[in-house]
Amino acid sequence: MEHARQRRRISWMKVESLKVDKRKMKSAITKQLNELAGRVNTTGSPEEMEEIKATLERLEELKEKTFEILEQLPSLYQEQKNIEMQIIIIYKSGTKRMG
Known about the structure:
It contains two helices and no strands. With 99 residues, the protein is mainly α.
């Protein structure tokens, strides 16, 4: 039963870590979009256009990282659910033996 609890804790920690990463990426994307919106309103020179292009490239990288994180979440949620079910089964089988 201790092993199942430890696995559940590790799985929970992974999920929480991915949630934090997702929030950080979302915040970074929002920051880049706001920066880009400010530039678009005042753009005129070729240098500014290059800065906008660089910002768009950074946004693309952030988007890809965010999607990678999002792709991992469902399997980790399922793993966490499976571990919780194992704990319940182990607990129930232990209480039946006692009672």
